[in-house]
Structures are given as C-alpha cells and as structure tokens.
Amino acid sequence: LEILVTILNQNENSPVFEQPSLNRTVPEDTKVNATIVAREELSATDADLDTIYYELTATVQGTDGYFAIKGVNNPEIYLQKALDYDKFNLTTLLLYARDRPVSSHEPTNTTTATITIVIEQSDTRAPWFLPCTRIHMDTNVCISSPYSGRVNISELSRDPLPLEPGPIYAIDPDRAIRDRIVYSMVGGNRDNVFSVDADTGNLTMNKIVTSPDPFLLQVMATQASNVRKYSVASVEIKVLNKSLHPPYFEKGIYNGTVFVGLASRSFVWQAGDTSTPLVITAADDDFPDV
Questions:
Q1: Distance CA 67, CA 82 (A)
Q2: How is residue 125 annotated by DSSP?
Q3: DSSP-assigned letters across all residues of 211-278
Q4: Half-sphere exposure of residue 265: CA atoms within 13 angstroms, side-chain side
C-alpha cells in the first residue's frame, strides 16, 4: 500500500527586511518619478515562500504624497511630487511587508522597515531684492517694488544716495546656501553718471547731472558662485533743481466761514464771501511754475 503524504506549509514566519532601517539624502531639485530607494534594497523575504505585499506611509505631518512605491508587490520608492525645502526638510517613511493582502481575513505576519529621508536644499531660486512680498507663501517668487531716489541738477553727491523704500539689497533665498550677492549696473546709466558698489549695492555718483531728464537704472544682483542665478531691479532717479528757499504761504492769516449743521465734507467759505470756497495756497521761489 503506497501512502502519499502532502505537507501543508504553515504561515509561521514573518517577512524579513535585509535592512530594517535606511537613510537617504535627496536633493530638493530631484526630478519627479526618480527612484529614491531601489527595489533590491527594500525587498523582504519570507521563509514560508509567501508572496509579499507592501504598503508605504509617511509619519511626518504634511509629507504625505511625496513618496510612493511602484506597486503592491514592488517596494521601490520613487518621488511622486516635487520637493520644496521650505515646506519640509526631513520625513520618515514606514514600509510594511505583509504575507497576506491588506484586505485578507487570514492571519497575517507583518514586518516594518523605517526609511529616513533628509531633503538637501538645492540652488533653485534667483536672488530676491528686499523688501519684497510673497503673494502666496507656497511660491518661490517674492515681488519687490522699484527703488527710487533723487539728485540735484549740477550737484555732485559724494555719499551713497538715499533710496526708497530702502537701500539696494538682495539675498539668496535658498537659506541653506545663502550665496554671496554681487551687484552690477546693466542699463539706463546714460553718460555713466552712477556707479553701484559690487559688494554693498550702494549707489553713488561719478559726475554731475546736467539734464533734468530722470534716470531709470537697471541693477542686477547675481549669485557669486552661480552666475545663472540673477535678478534685475529698477531704480528711478529723479533730477531736481536744488531747493534754496523754503515754501511760504501767500497770506499770513486765512479767514473762513462755516455754518452750523453742515454735512461732512462741505466747503469752508471765504469770510465775507459765501459763494467762494476758502483756498489756502503756498508758493516756493525755487519752483515758480509749480
């Protein structure tokens, strides 16, 4: 009598990761769909020879959706969404390996691997002129207003010109890099009247201005170690006649009349003439046509 005995495999072993803990440094400008951790480094084995089912989760709030695996049976981790160093620079991923599908009602053995991802900031942004305003905090753009200043005609100033809303100043917004900024004049400087200091951004005069026409200068801020990263700001310089006299009121005293019960924003009338609004005027001998 021949007796055939079939040995049924009991699910008594948990999957095993060769490396239960991994660390990866990922540049901020890594392309979407790029592989972060190869399948060979993450594949688990099972002594029961079961098919392994994988699931990936992120443990750090706000970092879901950036990393994913290629499939339920393929644990290769790839970048699913573009990174932003300002949003987060560190996250921890948990990779679960199960010997049964997630939806299975059978007893399941599970093993977990921990993958720590460190985001390395890349040189992705051009310099920002300050002050500037970010329209949305999740954008890489900061909008600055043009600078403005004034000089007197036929007068040479030896000091850096005061400007509004402040001196020319730019920064590298990639805060983990903070490259040095170099300034240069790239437009609008007719007759080479002005100079900009390469290190400080201070604007000074080389010679006097002989024409009342304003200047619209273009100043470029370039990163010292990456000349492909630059920004250009406008600087409007108005040319004025030098003011030698203070303004003065044409009368020492102005007399007016109002009536009880008038609505807000009603005219004040000249005293003795309730048909003519009271007008207060001043003049300046430096500007007779104003």
A1: 10
A2: -
A3: S---EEEEEEEEETTEEEEEEEEEEEEEEE----S--EES-S---EE--TTPPTTPPPEETTEEEEE-
A4: 0
What is the separation of C-alpha 195 from the centre of its chain, rounded to a whole number of angstroms? 29
Q: Which H or E element spans position 22?
A: strand 21-27
Tokens describing residue 80: 């699913």
Would you state the structure tokens that stand for residue 188, as one six-digit string? 């609008």
- Count the alpha carbons within 13 Å of 10 in the hemisphere toward its beta carbon: 1
What's the number of CA atoms in the CB half-sphere (13 Å) around residue 35? 10
DSSP state of 164: B
Residues 6+ apart with CB under 8 A from 127: 170, 171, 172, 173, 181, 221, 222, 223, 229, 230, 231
* Amino acid in the structure at residue 240: L
Name 165's Cβ contacts closer than 8 Å, sequence gap at least 6.
131, 145, 147
How many angstroms separate the CA atoms of 205 and 239, rounded? 13
Q: Is 288 left (phi over 0), alpha (psi -120 to 50) or beta?
A: alpha
* The predicted structure's pLDDT at residue 135: 72
Please check whether residue 220 is in contact with residue 166, taking contact to mean a CB–CB distance below 8 angstroms. no
**Bridge partner residues of 119 (DSSP):** 26
Residues of the chain scoring pLDDT < 70: 136-139
Query: What is residue 245's predicted lDDT score, i.e. its pLDDT?
Result: 86
